[in-house]
Design goal:
It comes from Planomonospora corallina. This is Secreted protein. By secondary structure, this protein is mainly β. About 0% of the residues lie in helices and about 50% in strands. The protein has a single domain, classed as Immunoglobulin-like (Sandwich), CATH 2.60.40. The protein contains no helices and nine strands. Strand 4 and strand 5 form a beta hairpin. The chain is globular, with a radius of gyration of 18 Å.
């Protein structure tokens, strides 16, 4: 009788994704990072490369539903780290735009493409 060997592969947090997404002219961006081990907090670091008077806004969605906006308006060559928690292996879509605020109303423009990550 022949022996049968079965190998089961289960994803683990070591396979979670991390990476960058940028606005349209790459003057700003956001880095998504999963903690790397099960149960750790995810983060998005939003940064601004260009001294143009505009800030940077990263927007996020989970399963098509709006999750959160991450804004940085502190000036060129700086950024801000935002921490949040997702259930492990949850997918998250992130895009980045330039942002401007006039009389308290924020408008976004110069958006780049959306990138998919998972926690």
């Amino acid at each position: 009788m022949a022996a049968v060997l079965a190998v089961l592969v289960f994803p683990n947090a070591a396979h979670a994704s991390s990476g960058s997404v940028f606005n349209g002219d790459i003057s700003g961006g956001a880095d998504f990072s999963d903690g790397g081990r099960s149960g750790e907090i995810e983060s998005i670091y939003v940064y601004d490369y260009k001294k143009d008077g505009y800030g940077v806004r990263a927007r996020s969605w989970v399963r098509g539903s709006y999750l959160r906006t991450f804004d940085y308006a502190g000036g060129a060559n700086g950024g801000e780290l935002f921490r949040f928690d997702l259930v492990e292996f949850t997918g998250i879509d992130v895009d980045v735009c330039s942002r401007d605020s006039v009389s308290g109303v924020v408008r976004t423009f110069n958006c780049g493409g959306t990138r998919y990550f998972y926690a």
